[in-house]
Automatic annotation (TrEMBL):
MF terms (GO), sorted A to Z: peptidase activity
Pfam families found in the cross-reference section: Peptidase_U32, Peptidase_U32_C
Family under the similarity heading: Belongs to the peptidase U32 family.
Annotated GO biological process: proteolysis
Name of the molecule in the record: Putative protease
Keywords of this entry: Hydrolase, Protease
Domain of life where this protein originates: Bacteria
Domain Peptidase family U32 C-terminal: 320-402
Length: 405
């Protein structure tokens, strides 16, 4: 079996570095335009160059999203941007629009083209068509079963990428107009307001002021809100299907999410290939994934067609059983003194769960800490406050400091 690529989201430069530190083989990101996550921080040209250098120096690849469904005005500056992406050494672009595919082929013919899930490839003839157009990888529609994916892989000699973890869109391949209709924000051009996560009530047509709660929830119903995808329990089956790249969703998610999810899938993938036929799933991996914010989970369409149990009716809110307390930015020569950045209030009396690059998890405490003016402090109440801290254990740069709620 060929070990699949583990592909992680990079909503900004910090998340890019964290994803790679915790085991991603490649990251996907967007510039300031043309991607489907306009509300993410994203990358200006200087940040993209820095991220590209960091990734390549650590043996990782960078894919840039150009996957909006482009209107005429979107094409005006695109050729110049594509030429620049090709010139600086981006490893591939992710595209959904045939017109954008043609621009990439004209302006940067050596740049690999990955076809976005937005293109809704659901069969092997469509996969063959896109390969004939010069596409080197296809991100299949999420609505495919494992059996269908295997058949496409067997009949078409093209790289296949599928999602393995993260939020799912209730619309077919993510192509939704509800946001446009309710808010004027175009989901297919990167500006989705996520109305599928809103709470809805039933109203009788002739009595618009009378609300009728839908039975599932007396407070309203989240009938459009999907559960999150999780495949880690049967990841070995995806490996056996010959899928080339496993994609984690979440460019809008936190650094803790990126580190925790990437690290866990990295461990499982490595274990599958290390143990071979002796591989067995360890429930500890589910416990670790639960330490990142998530909704209830579903296996998506891999096992069977997603039905009512793939939706969440009670709430669209995330489950957060663990607080992300701080990120380690820099470690001094003694290995225990570090500059950290606060992400949740904490104080000296607390014990922490520390996730380190490489997958080591240890318990630890901060013995002393100072603000950046050199004043000794015993608590950190200010958002993203930078602190010099001495730990009771060795620490690593980009370690995630967590605590149970």
């Amino acid at each position: 079996m060929k070990k699949p690529e583990l592909l992680a989201p990079a909503g900004d430069l910090e998340k890019l570095k964290v994803a790679i530190a915790y085991g991603a083989d490649a990251v996907y990101l967007a510039g300031k335009n043309y991607g489907l996550r306009a509300k993410a921080t994203n990358f200006n040209e200087a940040e993209l160059l820095e991220g590209l250098y960091y990734a390549h120096s650590h043996g990782a690849k960078v894919y840039v999203t150009l996957n909006i469904l482009a209107h005429n005005e979107d094409l005006e500056n695109l050729p110049e941007y594509v030429r620049w992406l090709g010139a600086v050494g981006v490893d591939a672009v992710i595209v959904s629009d045939p017109g954008v595919v043609s621009i990439v082929k004209e302006e940067a013919p050596d740049l690999d083209i990955h076809l976005s899930t937005q293109a809704s490839v659901t069969n092997y003839r469509a996969a063959q068509f896109w390969q004939d157009q010069g596409v080197s990888r296809i991100v299949l529609a999420r609505e495919l079963s494992l059996k269908e994916i295997k058949e496409i892989k067997e009949k078409v000699d093209v790289q296949i990428e599928t999602f393995v973890h993260g939020a799912m869109c209730m619309a077919y391949s993510g192509r939704c107009l509800i946001s446009n209709f309710l808010t004027g924000r175009d989901a297919n051009r990167g500006d989705c307001a996520q109305p599928c996560r809103w709470k809805y009530y039933l109203v009788e047509e002739k009595r618009p002021n009378e609300f009728y709660p839908i039975e599932e929830d007396y407070r309203g119903s989240y009938i459009l809100s999907s559960k999150d995808l999780r495949t880690i329990e049967f990841l070995h089956e995806l490996v056996e299907a010959g899928i080339d790249s496993f994609k984690i969703e979440g460019r809008m998610k936190s650094v803790n999410y990126v580190a925790t999810v990437v690290n866990t899938y990295r461990q499982v993938l490595d274990e599958i290939f290390h143990k071979g036929k002796d591989y067995q799933f360890d429930p500890k991996w589910l416990e670790e994934l639960a330490k990142s914010s998530h909704r209830h989970f579903t296996s998506g369409f891999y096992k069977e067609k997603a039905g009512g149990d793939a939706q969440t009716y009670e709430s669209s809110h995330y489950i957060r059983d663990v607080d992300f307390v701080a990120l380690v930015l820099e470690v001094f020569e003694d290995g225990r003194t570090a500059i950290i950045e606060q992400r949740n209030n904490f104080n000296l009396e607390q014990s922490f769960d520390i996730l380190m690059p490489g997958g080591v998890i240890k318990e630890g405490k901060i013995l002393k800490m100072w603000d950046m003016d050199g004043n000794e402090i015993d608590k950190a109440p200010h958002p993203q406050q930078r602190i010099k801290a001495v730990f009771d254990t060795d620490i690593k740069e980009l370690a995630i400091i967590r605590r149970e709620k």
